Every structure is written in structure tokens, then in C-alpha cells.
Amino acid sequence: MNGVSIGDLAVQTLTNPNEAARRLLALNPGREVLWLAFFLAVVLNGLVQVGIDQLIPVPEGEPIPPTDPVFLNLVRSAGAMLLSVVAFLFVGRLLGGTAAFDDILILTIWLQFLQIAALLITLIVSIALPFLMLMFLLATAVLSLYVTLHFLNEAHKFGSLWKSFGVIMLSALVAVPFVLALTPSAPV
């Protein structure tokens, strides 16, 4: 894949996520490439999170929240991402889906790379225009949900976005306790 096709695939992911998912699934890159891409996504996500923590201004008078060690952030990010892959796989199969682990993994990795790009854009915009940060984060979340619905639908061959929505909801019920356990500063 070259730079032009990556850009085309990114645009297609937002405009026609079903076709983008089919293109990604057809790549069949091999497990070594998938795991390398997985850890690259984890590291890039960690770097963006550090950038957000360091560069987003804290309003005057507010206490500066303590930062977690980078290694802990990387482990937490890898665990949450892997947990979502496993939950999407098994919950999808419970609902009649047929996806393989590698199918869910490649789609999750691609979505993670797009979310990293969106966070970078949000970071840059929020430094220049801080009042737009919340809007960009909300738009990223909505687009991420939209793409994830279509990606799960293609991977599991559901033929129904409602089943994909069910996978997301049930996966969240399974994954949230584990993610909270990975987060020492969680409200639990």
C-alpha cells in the first residue's frame, strides 16, 4: 500500500466503510504484520496521549492532574485494544457472526490509526482554538461508532447494523469492568 492508497482508504473509510472493510480484509497481511501494526498503533496512541497531556493548557487556578507513567499508558492502551478485539470477536460469534481473529484485528488496527490521526488534528486545533476541542472529540466519537458498526457488519457478515450495534453494546458490558481494573485512577 502506498501513500495515495492509504489516503484513499482513509477517505473511503469515512464515506463508504463497508467497501473499506472489504478492502482491508482482502489484504490478508499475515499475523506478524498485524502484530507489528498493533504495537505501532499502541505506541503512536501513547505518544499522542502524552502530547495531549503536555500541550493542552490547564485553566488558571485548576490543579494540574498527575500524569501516569508512559509504560503504564502503553500497557493500558494495548490491553484495552486487545480486549475490544476479543470482545468483538466472541460477542459477534454469539450473535451468529463468522469473523476470524485476524479480521477483527486488522479492522481495529486501521480504525485505531484513523483515531490517532483524528486526535492529532484535535490536538493541533485545540492548541490554536481550545473551544473547538470538545466538538472535534465528539465528532471523532460519532464517526468512530459509525465506522465500527459497518466494520463489524462486514467482518461478521451480519447483513444488519443492528447486530453490529448489539455487538458493541454487549462487548462494552464485558469489557468495561476489565478496562476499569486496568485504570488505577478509575472511579471504582
Description:
With 188 residues, this protein is mainly alpha-helical. The protein contains seven helices and no strands. It starts with a helix and ends in a 6-residue tail after the last helix. The relative contact order is 0.14. The model has no long low-confidence stretch (mean pLDDT 86).
Order of helices and strands: HHHHHHH
- Beta content comes to under 5%
Low-confidence region ranges: none
Net shape: globular
Strand count, sense and barrel status of the largest sheet are: none
Structural class: mainly alpha
Helix content: over 70%
Would you tell me the overall average pLDDT? 86
Q: Give the N-terminus to C-terminus distance in angstroms.
A: 44 Å
Query: How would you describe the oligomerization state of the chains in this entry?
Result: single chain
User: What is Rg?
Assistant: 17 Å
Q: Any idea how many domains?
A: 1
**Count of DSSP helices?**
7
